[in-house]
Amino acid sequence: MDFLNTLQPWHWLIVAFLCLGLEALGAGGFLLGSAAAAFLLAAVLWLLPETGWAWQLVWFAVGSLIFTVAYWKFFRGVNEKSDYPQLNQRAAQLIGRVVVLENDLPGGQGKIQIGDTLWSVKAVGHLEKGCPVIITGAEGMTLLIDRHS
């Protein structure tokens, strides 16, 4: 318990950097609030060195909670926005593309080759070989196609 009576600002800086290091390993934002609270507590303790250990722990707990909630409420969605929202959605990238059928599609179902991938396709009605089709949508890994005029 004597250690708690001698907490210094640099102790809280170590806690802050440990939290940031653990956050870098993939905590998903949970430790950012604790790191911010530890940095703030180090600054407060530098200005008010006579602060007791019990108050330091209370301020750390409350600060961690406030900063974590603020991160989740205001900043978490910032990194989820992308300039390329369909980057890993290959089927969605193909919507609007026109291709020529290499095989008949009896019953409107079959497979077509686009690039190096063989795709399952679904259409309304029979489509014959050589018919240009447009990709209108996707259901999972199945492309929805329609006759292109």
From TrEMBL:
The keyword Protease does not apply. It is a multi-pass membrane protein. It is found in: Membrane. GO terms for cellular component: plasma membrane. The chain crosses the membrane at residues 12-41, 53-72. Keywords: Membrane, Transmembrane, Transmembrane helix. This is Membrane protein. It comes from Endozoicomonas numazuensis.
